[in-house]
Each structure stands twice: as C-alpha cells, then as structure tokens.
Amino acid sequence: MPSRVRHLLLTAATVAVAAGLAAVTQTSAQAVTCNAKASLHDAGGALRGQAITLCRGGAPLPGEPTPIHVVDDSGVVQRLDPVTGEWRAVAGGTGTITYTCAGTATNTYRTVNTSAGKASTPLTTACG
C-alpha cells in the first residue's frame, strides 16, 4: 500500500476514534420529571391553598445546577359538606388560591390541584 494511502487511512481512523470518544464523554440532557403538589394552610381569617407542579431536569445552562421549573396550576379550595360527605368548591384560581372565612364554624377544607388531580391533606379549622 502506498504510504500516502496508508497515511490517509490512519488519519481517518484517528479522527473516527476521537469523535467516538467525544460522543461518549458528552452528557446528554437530563430527563424532565414533574411532581404535582396541593397544599392548604390557615392564614388567620383566610385559608391559602396552592396548586403547583415542580419539574426538574432539562438542559441546564453551562455551570448551572439542574433547573427547577414551577408551574402554577389551576386549583380549588373545597369544603367538606358534613351532611352529604361531598366536597364543594368555595374558591378557585391559578397558583395561590385564597378563601376568606365567613364565620368561625369548624369545617374541613382541602385544596385540589385540578390540572393534576392531586389533593392536599384535609385541614379542619374554625373557618365558616
């Protein structure tokens, strides 16, 4: 084999191996994982519910940690009807939902993240 052809073949093989190593060492974009959340707390005369989804992953900027994305979802604050056992919406919105208490009767409430079907832990409090 002439030396010029041998040199071209060796050069091509070296480039192919180097390209293969570069492909192996590059990190691929992280998969995005999401977790829906619904929460509710007593804010003294009002209830504050929150319906959000937290997503982690994706392609971070160079030198940055894994990105976290917060999505404000639609949600409702619901009150439990003690007679029928059904949950009835008393306030709704996107992200943070506020229900202003209309008295001091003890009731049970929850927030539902309607975008994801996720409900908070029920909260029993003096809020009519």
Structural description of this entry:
The protein is α+β, with helices and mostly antiparallel strands and 128 residues long. The protein has a single domain (31-59, 66-126), classed as Immunoglobulin-like, CATH 2.60.40. It is built from 1 helix and 8 strands. Strands 1, 2, 3, 4, 5, 6, 7 and 8 form an 8-stranded antiparallel β-sheet that branches. The chain starts with a helix and ends with a strand. Residues 3-28 have low confidence and may be disordered.
Poorly predicted runs of 5 or more residues: 3-28
Q: What is the CATH topology classification name? A: Immunoglobulin-like
Intertermini distance: 93 Å
Order of helices and strands: HEEEEEEEE
Radius of gyration: 28 Å
What structural category do the secondary elements indicate? Answer: alpha+beta
- Residue share in β-strands: over 45%
What's the topology here?
Elements (H helix, E strand, L loop, with lengths): L2 H23 L4 E13 L3 E13 L9 E5 L1 E7 L6 E14 L5 E8 L4 E2 L3 E4 L2
Task: List descriptors.
128 residues; alpha+beta; Immunoglobulin-like; eight-stranded antiparallel β-sheet; 1 helix; 8 strands; elongated; disordered N terminus
Quick summary:
This is Ig-like domain-containing protein. The protein is α+β, with helices and mostly antiparallel strands. It contains one helix and eight strands.
